[in-house]
Amino acid sequence: MNKYTEQQKLDAVETYRSGELGLKKTAELHGVDVASLRKWVAGYEALGLAGIQQKRRQTYDLRFKLDVLQRMKADGLSCRQAGAIFNVRRSNSIAEWERAYSRDGIAGLMPHHATRRANRVPEVPAGPPPQDTGQKGPSRQALLDELEVLRAENAYLKKLRALVQSQAASARQKAKVVIELRPKFSLPTLLRAADLPRSTFYYQQAALAAEDKYAATKDLIKSVYDQHKGRYGYRRITATLRRLGTVINHKTVQRLMDKLQLKSIVRPKKYRSYRGQVGKVAPNVLERNFSASGPNQKWATDVTEFKVDGKKLYLSPVVDLFNGEIVAFATSRSPLFTMVGAMLNRAFAKLRPGDRPVLHSDQGWQYQMEQYRQRLSANAVTQSMSRKGNCLDNAVVESFFGTLKSEYFHVNKFSSLDELEAGLRGYIRYYNQDRIRTSLNGMSPIEYRELVAGVSP
After folding, report:
1. Region labeled Disordered — which residues (predicted)?
2. Measured between alpha carbons, how far is 178 from 213 in angstroms, rounded to an integer?
């Protein structure tokens, strides 16, 4: 039995429609609840007196339910508004249809749909279209078009549910689903199913395509990184890209390398603050002034060791402070003076007439020998020595050793000293000719010397 009579409903609706009172005041005046009054007003405005009349329990066929849901979607109606327009008293029924359709598609709207959830669709009989008998109803072609829309909606909702996992879908997520389903359905059908404006779809499609505008740059970064075996960081890679004609900001390169998970080999840097004493064999002429205006003005040298399977290999290079170039080097299985002598012979051969460089070293025993000092004097080379126990006075050579070991020795495995020795020769050739330095305006040491000083080997 209904709680309110039709006359009570009509009186309350007419009072509200007179405009003198609002919903709440009208509901209090007539002793009804606000929700019921709102439903009666909507029904009366849509259908007149029939909208508030008592109605017997009624069943709705599939076509009617689809019409209701389609109208809701097209006009953005609520369940209550749709119920008023289609004279469905229980708006909860429309909400149930909407949930069933979202969950099971068309099968959810069919009678006893709990036993028919195989996503079956109504079969359309083959043959010529039925003759017009004067009865109002959609044509066969209209039903086929509607069926195509419903299939697209069903596929779209399944795809969207899997993508966003029951979260609110953004316009970009909707556009992604539409792009994936375009081979199966027409674009207008998909946009209708997604409730996505055409202009919004094309905007999101362009934005998605622009996300990968650095695809070619990423490939180039990966190529440069692999070519130099991971030795380059984002600064050197930026300089290399600019040399290749790609103008790009170093921060962009750093961000792209982070996405590609490319990271240069970084060696640990140690700082020692012990200043030591001034050497007695030779003064510290260099005084940490590591800059030079031209080649063969300031040199630095030292000895380092490598260990492979318990055996040692020693390397003695000469570094030109003008451009960081390895002027000469020698290797030996033993730290004998013959190795240093061979290095000096190769370095002196690079001197031009009038060159009188300063050769700086630490206070190693090789550099304190009278034979070493005489060789320097005979070639007009001034000797300079670091203070005792202070590697910072010879920081340029120490930096080269650190780079050599972090970029080459520590990242490779060697089966013998011969293999290591051959590899060192190859790396030093690479260091001089190919490895660019940001301090040299993105050029390698030899390129910088030939361009700035105009001196060829």
Report:
1. 120-139
2. 21
Q: Report pLDDT digits (tens) over 218-237.
A: 889 999 999 988 888 899 99
Q: What is the 3-state secondary structure (H, E, C) of 353-415?
A: CCCCCEEEECCCHHHHCHHHHHHHHHCCCEEEECCCCCHHHHHHHHHHHHHHHHHHHCCCCCC
CA 230 to chain centre: 20
pLDDT at 163: 57
Q: Provide the token pair at 363.
A: 């206070």
- The rounded distance, in Å, linking the Cα atoms of 173 and 128 is 42
Contact 8, 32 (CB under 8 A): yes
Closest alpha carbon to 284 in 377, 382, 376: 382
Q: Which two tokens stand for residue 186?
A: 């027409």
Evaluate whether 104 touches 119 at the Cβ level (below 8 Å).
yes
CA distances from 364 to 20, 312, 387 (A): 106, 18, 11
Cα 187–66–87 angle (5° rounding)? 135
The answer for residues whose C-beta is within 8 angstroms of residue 347's C-beta and 6 or more apart is 299, 318, 327, 328
* Dist CA 116 CA 71 (whole Å): 25
Mean pLDDT of the chain: 82
Question: Which DSSP category does 316 fall into?
Answer: E
d(CA 2, CA 278): 109
Phi, psi values for residue 110, rounded to 5°: -80, 155
Which tens digits make up the pLDDT trace of 320-373? 999 999 999 999 999 889 999 999 999 999 999 999 999 999 988 899 999 999
The DSSP bridge pattern shows strands 382-385 and 358-361 to be: parallel
DSSP 3-state assignment of 331?
Answer: strand
Choosing among 3.40.640.10, 3.30.420.10, 3.30.460.10, 3.40.50.150, the CATH entry for 298-453 is 3.30.420.10
> pTM above 0.70?
no
User: Can you give the C-alpha Rg of the chain in angstroms?
Assistant: 43
d(C-alpha 50, C-alpha 57), whole Å: 15
- pLDDT tens sequence across 147-182: 777 777 777 666 665 555 444 568 888 888 888 888
Q: Which residues is 316 bridged to in the sheet?
A: 330
